[in-house]
Amino acid sequence: MVRRPLEADRSPADSSALHRTRAQSARSDSDTISPSQFTPSSTRSRSDSASLPGTLDFDPDVPIPSIEREPDEASSLSTHNSSSARARTPSFSITPPATEGMTTPIPPSGTSHGTSPTPSYTVLSPATRTGLELSERAAGSSSRSDSLPGAGRHHSQSFPTTSVAGQHSTRSPVDSVTVSHGIGNIRLGSPVDSVTHGMGNIRFDTEDTRPGTPTPRTYLHPRSPSPNISIDGAHRSIRSTSRRRSGSYVDPTPHNVAEEEPPRERFHEPEFQREFTTAKNLVNDLVNVLASSSLHNEAQSRIRALYLQAVDLSRFQKPSARIVALVGDGEVGKSSLLNSLLDFEGFARSGSSGKACTCVATEYHYHENDDFAIEIEYFTLDELRDQLTELLQSYRHYYLRPAQENDKPEGEQNDLEKRAEVAQDTFQAAFCNHLAHNERFLLDNSEATVLRTLLTWTRATGLPIRETPGAGPEREFFNEANQCSDRLIKLTSESTSPNEASIWPFIRKIKVYLNAYILSKGLILADLPGLRDVNSARLKITERYLLNCDEIFVVCRIGRAITDASVMGVIELARRASLSRIGIVCTRSEEIQADEAQRDFGGDAPTTIKRLKDKIKQMQESLKATEREISDFSIDSDTEAEIDEEESKELVRLHNAAKKILQTNDCENLRLKTFLMTTRNEKVTADLRTAHQSHIPGGNLPVFCVSNRDYWEHRRNPKEEAMPLLHLSGILQLRRYCLSVVAESQLQAALDYMFDAIPALLGSVELWVQSGAGSLSAERKQAIRDTIEEIEKALDTVSCLASPVNANARSMEQQFNTHIARSMRQYSNDWSEAAYNVTIEWHGWSHGKQSPFPFIFSGEHSPCDHVQTFKFLSGTYAAFCRKYGDHSTKATVRPRCWNQEAIQAMVDQLATPWRTFRQNLQASQDNLLNTIDDCFDCAIALSDSTDATARSMRTLTMTMRHRQALLIAAVENLEDGFQSDLSVLRTDAFSGIRSSFIGQLMESAYNRTIQESGTGSDSRRKKIIGDAFGDDQLFERHRRQFRSRFSALAGGLQDKIQAAIATHLAAVQTDLDTLRNENVALESERHPEFRNRVEDAVRNIRQEMEGVYAVASRFRAPTT
């Protein structure tokens, strides 16, 4: 994998390609203060009122003021011009009746968006209230913001949100809420949106009131006159502007993924990040200095070469990417989980068709651009031929079976039918235009004829399908996220047109490139089909992919996590393939009912749930009583001509009490939701670890319970109110864990960057500066040239034909032949005999062997029972064949693997030779590193022995030491990768999984048994399996595959090491040429001012780096 640059200082704004905006208040041209704050007309001059624009867009976080009207002055609003003013929450002022003849205007009950900030308040009558609904709105309504304790209030301001297409849609944070009695229908989708939400529509309508008479509706309206003021002609109380309550301003900015808490790894410690950033900035400074002369544009200039090196170093090449795979069955929420981790809503989507869709392995890679790209890797024609053959045989075997085959055991019938359905779906998807009216073609012709025709249709698709693996795929680019998402749906799902062929049957893998924060740190996220895929080609792709992943998460629903078959399948694969980095992600953690939890939870949990429910019920009853008082007050007031000041105060008190009850109710519902989810999460986590942790090498099983619904319902809300529920969703914790996967490799790469790469570059630049100093005599220059020639000869020993580097692959192959291949040749016949004997045991009753079903032969059963048991055994044997030897029965605790049992004699006998072989390989790799070290040490010693007074030679010595360290680090990384590849090879050689050597060698035999039917089919199956495992060439073919794969690995390692050596020796050679080449010296001499600038810059950077080293050196050794 190519390592991409780490951009630790990348702007948080780049963390998503989707542009996000937030609404801002409209203002006059002269207004420069944000956020805006409103003041009543009574506190402003007439000139200020006159400048008010005609239409106002109100900021949702500023107060709605009270308005007092005078007989000769119309009320108006304007923005406050004081920069020290702070935002207020809405306040309500209620004023007694105006003087005779004056009518207080009543604002209209309806509020249109963007024209009036006045909310409409309504209290529903008791008859219409049937239940408290504390959940998300019905489908089709806009998602709403949820209120949290201490969070800000929502107002009737519409906010733009960004869809996956990048287009803005409008949502209002204020929705109506139904307030009712009881808590029987509590659903834990989200708490009530805000404190003001519940009272958001209080409105009293009165009838038969005379014109100009204030009503309770007037007093409850935010624009109503204040009851605390006596309007007597021109006299007004100054308290009108001092009685408004102020509230805290809520920043509407949503959560920024780039600001999330980093993993608790050394690389992410603030101290280290500070010094790392300083080092990168210093390199950028050097780039600017080198670019300050026109020399950096001259092709043959040494400065140009140094400038390009500095530019490349300034980008900091990240270590090779780490792969985190998500594997699981369909409909468990993998696509939603990917969207949450990527922080791209609706990007990865499942198709609308349920037939064989989303079965393509899809990788998500990082790129710096804001656009999107897709790469498609197609199967070769040979691979498609094998797949079509298997599918065609499954289809024909089921539909052309004889009538007597219908009485097969139910399990066998279901398996055959499922395989036939998968084959039919695949054929219809790939060739619907050919088979739409002629599906009998697949059955009426010979298998060979049908297969030739299918391959002809494949070639005619127009897709870039090659006979054998060829050139890499081309990229498709998209400007918008929705365009890329639509293309992915088209590639991975059924076609929406009945006459248009689908593409997915021909695709091996898809790569998607996007600018997502989690990918920017060197991660690749992979979406894989489950291990229970009936299509064996897809299953093997998933299995092979998982063997090379750095972290594997099996995804399942939380409600069935303990018994989920996909979880058990991945755990079993981990056990057999020695995979230690396995985790489980349980989705839909928000789906839990309080009543059910109260019955199911143990310990003190039921008591806590009951207490919280009772408290919520009590608050609802209090709210109901308060509403009745308000309603009664309304009825009483309607019979009076006017309302007095005491009644106004009481009405305000009741209103405030209702708001406080709603706020407390929100808090308690959130507390109940949190308790239910965290308690269930902890229980499921403990149960999963108890069930599976002991079967995983290393004994570590991370478990995460997540809610994608909660994450996206609150993701765009103001950060202050959203964070508790974002944390509760579990997505932030999972994203942090994924980032930790790459943290250790990032640390080592950053240390190499600071301690060796930067000093090596500075040394090369300094050599250019010193070459133009002109202070050396001709004799001393000649002495330096002679030393340089000796240094070159010393370094040539590491790359010459006789070097151990060039014999590394041959040496490793000789060790393989000595320890592994020789033993395999010697004992292959013994292993074939042992494998055959194992197949006899699978018969269950032959040759007096111990049956895996011992109850069959007990005296407790009649002969009739034995006949039924033999039928059972026959069906079980066929089931093992259909599952390629990997199956489980009620008599087995865990799945049995025939392949593993058949090769166990070989595995046991090669265990010790394999350990010895690995130890010898490690010793060889150590010797190779010592050889490289010795060559550099010799060259450095020659440099040290030359005229010690020459600054250039001292600089060369230091620079070569840094080049030596960089080369050793590069070779060590290559050897680490080789060891990982060797572990995968061990799994292929010594395990019985489907994609292993033995699994591939036995696949054709299993396929033949699957095609068997009719009388005597059971005996024929057993003969096929016995002959295949007993074949004296089986382990010989196994040995050849084993040796071929190891030779390829050894040769690949040697090629990579040779390339690394050549790269770093070329850098050293360039430094040597800088000292020896007169043209470089002349270049330096001709630009004295530029040379002085460069010299000063290098000196200053070295001084700054001393401070970096002082801190970063503490991170070089692992902490205890």
Structure description:
The protein folds into four domains: 303 residues, no CATH class; 178 residues, Rossmann fold (3-Layer(aba) Sandwich); 69 residues, no CATH class; 265 residues, no CATH class. It contains 31 helices and 17 strands. The protein has a nine-stranded mixed sheet, sandwiched between helices. A two-stranded antiparallel sheet has the order 1-2. It has a two-stranded antiparallel ribbon with strand order 3-6. Strand 13, helix 13 and strand 14 form a beta-alpha-beta unit.
Question: Would you spell out the secondary-structure blueprint of this structure?
Answer:
Layout: E1 38-39, H1 46-50, E2 78-79, E3 121-122, E4 159-162, E5 168-171, H2 195-198, E6 201-202, H3 216-220, H4 270-290, H5 302-314, E7 322-327, H6 334-342, E8 361-366, E9 372-378, H7 381-399, H8 410-435, H9 441-444, H10 447-459, E10 475-478, H11 481-492, E11 507-514, E12 523-528, H12 536-547, E13 551-557, H13 565-577, E14 582-587, H14 594-600, H15 605-638, H16 645-692, E15 703-705, H17 708-714, H18 719-729, H19 731-740, H20 743-771, H21 778-796, H22 808-843, H23 863-882, E16 886-887, E17 896-897, H24 898-902, H25 904-945, H26 951-990, H27 997-1011, H28 1017-1030, H29 1034-1076, H30 1078-1086, H31 1088-1112
Parallel strand pairs: 7-12, 7-13, 8-11, 13-14, 14-15
Antiparallel strand pairs: 1-2, 3-6, 4-5, 8-12, 9-10, 9-11, 16-17
Helix pairs in contact: 4-5, 4-31, 5-20, 7-8, 7-10, 14-15, 15-16, 17-18, 20-26, 20-29, 20-30, 20-31, 21-25, 21-29, 22-25, 22-28, 22-29, 25-26, 26-29, 27-28
